Amino acid sequence: MLVQRSADILSSEITSESAYLNRRQLMGAAGSLALGAMLSSCAEADSTGKPETSGSSHAGALDYSSAEKQSQSGFYTDEAKTPYKDITAYNNFYEFGTDKSDPRKYADKMVVDPWSITIEGEVSKPGTYTLEDILKPHDLEERIYRLRCVEAWSMVIPWVGLPLSDLIKQFEPTSRAKYVSFETLYRPEEMRGQRSRLSTISWPYTEGLRMDEAMHPLSFLAVGLYGKLMPNQNGAPIRLVIPWKYGFKSIKSIVKIRFTEQLPSTSWNKLAPKEYGFYSNVNPSVDHPRWSQASERRLPSSLLNPRRIKTLPFNGYANQVAGLYKGMDLRRYF
Ligand SMILES: Nc1nc2c(c(=O)[nH]1)N[C@H]1C(S)=C(S)[C@@H](COP(=O)(O)O)O[C@H]1N2
Ligand SMILES: [Mo]
After folding, report:
1. Distance between Cα 245 and ligand 2 center (Å)
2. How many whole angstroms from 49 Cα to the centroid of ligand 1?
3. Per-residue pLDDT tens digits for 294-334
4. Each residue of 175-193: pLDDT tens digit?
5. CA-103 nearest atom, ligand 1
6. Domain range spanning residue 173?
7. What is the CA 227 to chain-centroid distance, rounded?
8. Theoretical Cys-Cys bridge with 249: which of 49, 141, 245, 253, CB 3.0 to 4.6 Å?
9. Omega before residue 163 within 30° of 0, cis
10. Among all ligands shown, which has an atom nearest to the Cα of 252?
11. CATH of the domain at 206
């Protein structure tokens, strides 16, 4: 309890500093990253400290007629979007603690500017690049995806970012690259979950994909949501979003991308290999050893209004991605 209390004092002491950093980061990013109309139009709203929750002021900047055409691609869904306040208050980001409310409380301590990403392994252009340099050649776009956590809850989130394939092509992986792995920031001074003695994950958090999964048009790197820069608790400044896989594959706050010939080891698989496979495609017919995956709670959900819905194979993206797994036994490769 004493630990809990002193941590609370610490977090209140840093509030003003982190608020300053967030504003600086926001304005700096809107200017130097040229994040485009979608993000820069939101800089003002955000600097007041009042997040704009409806997303309506961004609707004008987006072309929803093309959204309709692209619904075949799975890039959009017309399901009701989960409100901003729920997306940013109910999080899994174990680097900041295991409670759903911990990331929002503590992730402000993470310094996200400056940020760089190391590219290594089977790739023609390895090196450490600033986030600005990495993003410069790309236009940002919006994707509205379902996110299905392995714990059987889900949200609908309007992300802003770029296709993962565009970033991968930029660094020219060699023909030996069969997999790509990702690593989250390791900075225990800023991430209280990484200092915790109770923590079971061996840091840094790592995830991975097969190359053809990574190159799939649905695979996305997000730098924002609801038209605003990514909140720290959602994985600022850049995180993966793989909508047909359980949420833990969508690794946050990425600092390293490595191309490999061998299947990379991944955090949850290492921790509990019987519960979390490498593939982790959303699959209602393969239960987690400790609970059913047949249905999910669509957030915001409550006891009175649980909003329980059926879980769909590949989280509803089977038309787009089932072909990646042709001939594979999905019970064995869960
Ligand atoms: N680095 C890191 N990335 C992570 C996690 C984490 O604990 N650490 N949790 C994962 C899990 S279990 C889920 S469901 C999603 C949650 O993303 P959200 O908080 O933006 O909804 O992030 C994933 N990415
Ligand atoms: Mo999750």
Report:
1. 10
2. 24
3. 999 999 999 999 999 999 999 999 999 999 999 999 999 99
4. 999 999 999 999 999 999 9
5. 19
6. 71-325
7. 15
8. 245
9. no
10. 1
11. 3.90.420.10
